[in-house]
TrEMBL record:
Name of this protein: Formimidoylglutamase
Enzyme class: hydrolase
Residues binding Mn(2+) 1: 108, 147, 149, 151, 230
Binding sites annotated in the UniProt record for Mn(2+) 2: 147, 149, 230, 232
Keyword match Phosphoprotein: no
Family statement drawn from the similarity comment of this UniProt entry: Belongs to the arginase family.
Pathway: Amino-acid degradation; L-histidine degradation into L-glutamate; L-glutamate from N-formimidoyl-L-glutamate (hydrolase route): step 1/1
Catalytic activity: N-formimidoyl-L-glutamate + H2O = formamide + L-glutamate
Keyword Isomerase annotated: no
Entry-linked InterPro entries: HutG, Ureohydrolase, Ureohydrolase_dom_sf, Ureohydrolase_Mn_BS
GO biological process, one term: L-histidine catabolic process to glutamate and formamide
Cofactor binding comment, as recorded: Binds 2 manganese ions per subunit.
Lineage of producing organism: Bacteria, Bacillati, Actinomycetota, Actinomycetes, Mycobacteriales
One MF annotation (Gene Ontology) recorded for this entry: agmatinase activity
Length: 303
């Protein structure tokens, strides 16, 4: 918990974060570079969880927010698959204990382990409901990915480019995947075809004025939302510290508005923020942007 430090002139995040107990938000870190390495990207995202906590620590607290930090799952060596299992277990425990869980990545391979954990946690909730004779109807889970990339790549092993194909195929939920901010020059025709085959919905970066209505329709048809924020959806000047900086990107105000729209739905259970690469950041700019997005989401969830 020593990373949660800062000035004491009023309540800030570092004052309220604990390592146990009930809270509005649970935090799990995923210190992983392996998916990016396998995807031939530039490493450094494993340092993202620490940088993001440092950016969150001094932010002011308004209202009744409470946060529990469950620590990091660290991918040792090249064993991403074991890391995914450990992340899923940590996220499942957090989902069962907190209204919303924040996962701090890590490359975008984070999303697969995060989503598996969400599903396990929801199953645990359903089992508790059945024991108390409450309704145990399986919720319809949707994934909203704010990203320049589909991350639907087919590969012999999991990478930072495969997580949503893994999710869609494992849970048979292609129509439950929405990606906003897709950059056509950075996604091959094969990836567009894959999205079509799965029945996924997408909004390209040049169509971003349509995103709020698309997201609203998606929220209406789902019970639970996993929001994945890949910081490379933002312009490179706003978010330079990422594994693959954007040539165009979607402006921060729009990404913030979409994240707040999802949070305000009351259906958000899981958020992962990925691809923060502190070694390439400028004045902590990307970490501060990521922290602001999480701050806004937490403020809405806490009411």
């Amino acid at each position: 918990m020593s990373i949660w430090t800062g000035r004491s002139d009023g309540p800030r995040w570092h004052h309220i974060v604990t390592d146990s107990g009930d809270s509005t938000v649970g935090i799990v870190g995923f210190a992983s570079d392996e998916g990016v390495r396998r995807n031939h990207g530039r490493p450094g995202a494993s340092e993202g969880p620490t940088a993001l906590r440092q950016a969150l620590a001094p932010l002011a607290v308004h209202g009744q927010l409470s946060v529990v930090d469950h620590g990091d799952v660290t991918v040792g060596g090249t064993d991403l698959e074991q890391g995914h299992q450990e992340l899923a277990a940590a996220v499942a425990a957090s989902v069962s204990s907190h209204p919303v869980t924040f996962v701090l990545g890590g490359g975008h391979e984070t999303a697969y382990g995060s989503h598996c954990g969400l599903r396990h946690g929801l199953n645990d909730d359903a089992a508790r409901d059945s024991r108390t004779n409450e309704s145990s109807r399986s919720p319809r889970v949707g994934v909203i990915n704010l990203d320049a990339h589909f991350d639907l790549r087919r590969a012999e092993e999991a990478t930072s480019g495969t997580p949503f194909l893994q999710i869609c195929e494992q849970f048979d939920c292609g129509p439950d995947y929405l990606v906003v901010g897709v950059s056509r020059p950075n996604n091959t025709q094969e990836l567009f075809d894959e999205a079509g085959r799965l029945g996924a919905t997408y909004v390209e970066d040049w169509q971003i004025d349509q995103a709020d209505s698309v997201v609203a329709n998606f929220l209406e048809s789902h019970d639970v939302i996993h929001l994945s924020i890949d910081l490379d959806v933002l312009p490179a000047g706003v978010a330079p510290g990422v594994s693959a900086p954007a040539g165009l990107g979607v402006d921060l105000a729009t990404i913030r508005a979409l994240a707040c729209q999802v949070a305000a739905s009351g259906k958000l259970r899981l958020v992962d923020v990925v691809e923060l690469n502190p070694g390439f950041d400028v004045d902590g700019r990307t970490a501060k942007v990521a922290a602001r997005l999480l701050w806004d989401i937490a403020a809405i969830v806490a009411g």
